[in-house]
Design brief:
Methane Monooxygenase Hydroxylase, Chain G, domain 1; protease; ATP-binding; 6 domains; ATP-dependent peptidase activity; 5-stranded parallel β-sheet; single chain; Lon_bac/euk-typ; Archaeosine Trna-guanine Transglycosylase, Chain: A, domain 4
Length: about 800
Amino acid sequence: MSKARVQILPVGHRVIFPGTTVRLAISNLSDYPKGKKITIIGILPHEESNNKKFYNYGTLMGIVYDHPIAKKENSQSNFFNNPMSSFSRKDSHIFAIGVERYKVLSMSEEGKTIWASIQLEKDTSTEVSETLIEDLRKSGIHYIQHVRMADPVSRERIKRIQDEKNISNLGFYIAGLLEISTAEKQAILENFNLEDRTNQIIAHALNTTAEDQIHDEINKKVQKILQEQLKKTPKPSGLPDMSEFQRMLGTKPSGTDSNDFIVKFQEKLNALQMPESSKKYVQGELNRLKALQPTNSEYNMIRNYIETAVELPWNTSSQDKNDIDQAQSQLDNDHFGLEKIKKRIIEYLAVRGLKGDMKGSILCFTGPPGVGKTSLGKSIADAMGRKFYRIALGGVRDEAEIRGHRRTYIGSMPGVFIHALKTCGTNNPVILLDEIDKVGKDMARGDPASALLEVLDPSQNHTFTDHYMSIPFDLSNILFLATSNVIETIPAPLRDRMEVIELTGYSTHEKLQIAKRFLVAKQVNENGIKFELIDFPDESLNKIILEYTREAGVRQLERSIGAICRGIAVEYSKALKSGNDYQKKIITNEVVEEILGIPIFDNDLEERLKSPGVAIGMAWTAYGGKIMIVETSKSYGSGKLRITGQLGDVMKESIITAISWIKSKFPSLVKHDKNQNSSEGFSQLDIHIHFPAAAVPKDGPSAGITITTALISLLTGIKVRSDTSMTGEISLKGNVLPIGGLKEKVLGAHRMGIKRIIIPERNKKDIQDIPDYVKSELEFICVRKIEEVLAQALEDKTILAKMEVDNPKL
């Protein structure tokens, strides 16, 4: 530590912090030495209890002689332009900037001046979390807005708080604004632990704000009561007594029932099996509550905290069901299909039954909407015999939703996980984090996704500490499940903590079974119809699936079945009103069209592929797989290439690659004049490539072989088979490269009635993930080269032989 000898300026009961600029009135400036621009002096306040005794810690200040504000304010005295000219002035003002804190080692008086031997002091701890820094800024701004907003410089103060980068200076600046006692400010000055000092400043700021608001509310309420009393008794003989005031304010006299619930809290706390350190902390809060009057501003805050703490399920767990057969039956009864997920849950239960616990398993179900991700969580909880709680994360932008609010804030409350445990009443529920891929982010409120990292980390969540609770709680007994539509939008660190299980869309056969087993019965019951009065044949259900609801999930299918049930409910109600008997209604295709209207979808693929230059590809979306039409046309021109359909850069590059491959392999196809020996025929043709559904953005390399096939079909005049779809990336050398999302793409093509599917040879292993009844209705053609694709996709295979004659090197 640096030591020095400085002149001391007593400042009474005023504490000045480092990093702040202040104006001081000095009776005799000539007693202090003048430097060229800055003079260093020591500021030292007196103790509140003794006006003659100094505190042991003060702040070194630099007197600035050319401060711009001071020049303006003291222009008449010309003090800053010529400091010595006004040193003899009485009560002159100087501007000083706080530099550093110091400790007084010894003091002495030399005439009228005080000198001290000092030692500079710095913070012993300088590490502060970003969350705490943000809390400090919020508390300072909150204080100004509620207490100091009337000040003319409030805006400048808020801007200073927002812009200050030095955390120590930020805290000292806010502390200087607070209306607290000299002793409290001196305690802040003498605190050399940055994190502890920051918490101290936050607490003072928020407590002062809370007290100010409470006083305003009480004053308004008392004024209202007095006005009402004056109206009732124009000439009152006296004011109501205190008990009458408390009755009118809605509060009970102190001591009437406070002891009752304090005793109950103490009994509950003694019975809890919680960590000793946590119990000691809660006991301390309970002791504080006992010492407070109910009218104290902190009373209800501490009471709510203790109530939350003693109601948490510290040692309450639900008994798991380890009967694997029963769990399998439960899952099968609630959901059709989803075999991969059911298998994973059964594995979880089997391992738990053998080991006794299964910490660290966090499953994330990813798939298109309507496939049963959320409802699956409830089925898993039922199969395991656990409580179930769903947390909707879509659009959550505040980190405090996850970690809770600090109790220094007004209206603070615990985060969603503490609330879930309190609601469930057990410490091992199944908690579903729904739509985890849609968590928002707000620079002012933190990042909720980052706050989830500790919750979903098996090595950390056994000591999860909610900001409101301030004591750790073990979350490792919870089975966390998550759902998402896409996995790419989940931050990588968060995604790494979860085991991702993909749910693909349902096939037509699966949709039919789901409708027969679940949806029809549900909608018939919800619309008040008797089961014996309505019948849905498979034929009508298939019509709804194929012509009204081409989706990956079953939500629209359920809505359509519900619409039919409502139509039948109208007929049934009319029959009951007229007293006629209502005969059983069979839902035929005609009835479906009568209620649902003209079919939305039709299978026009064969019609669309009657012309050359059209091919069928396959695409993956967050809502399931689907087919993708590629259309091409040519015209005489100057070699322009036009691409439409809102394509991304990767897909545009696939088009360029396909054209380059065609030019290099089949030069005769691109010649405008057959007698011409040049291979620059594309320069005399305008090629237009279009992807229908132009309003939907499209990107990715997997349409490479589809684009190539469509162009070859256009240039040769040979049509592409209407029962064939394809997917695969093309390389510049004509190789067919693997793609992703094959299962979703195949299911989407199957829903459209496709019978033959061309895929890359390296995706052959992915066929095993496709349901057997889908594979039995499809022909899979695995290829390595684009020539194999053309041989399988074009209606006339002889064109390949002609092209080989034109280019022997092929």
